[in-house]
Amino acid sequence: MKINITKEQYKDLITMSAIANSVVGILGDMTIDTDYKKRSDKMEKLEEYLLQFADDFGCGELTQKYGEKNIFDDEIYGKNILPIMDDYNEHELFDGLANKLAWRDFRKAHSEVEMKEIENKNSGYFGVELYDYEKKYWDEFEKHEFDRLEIVKKISKKVKR
Question: Is the pLDDT of residue 161 over 70?
């Protein structure tokens, strides 16, 4: 089978490959899940394969030699791939944290019976009810990032006898 793609499509393909390879590679390195490590190895080989055609697409400047392999040029990777990864990581951090904190607040504000009623009413979907809780944190992080995020240790008052 042969697939015909344009130079622009090739650039997009190798960019997608680099991003996916970075994500799965991190998971492969940072978790004990051996499936991620296997996937990471397969994706790395696929990226190497795709990059060997850089010259054919007039994109040789995007690669550099690493031993016998073509890899992304360090400068190009730092300029084109890392900013995408950084933006994604920041978005996921804020969004994930907002979601976790919203769920915490939601559980504090609703009894188990209320939560079961909401779950049944919405076929297991809590998004509408959870939205205002999340929005509070999204707005906070957008304005202040982590500047006002603190862990407050509650001090229990001892009752005198």
Answer: no
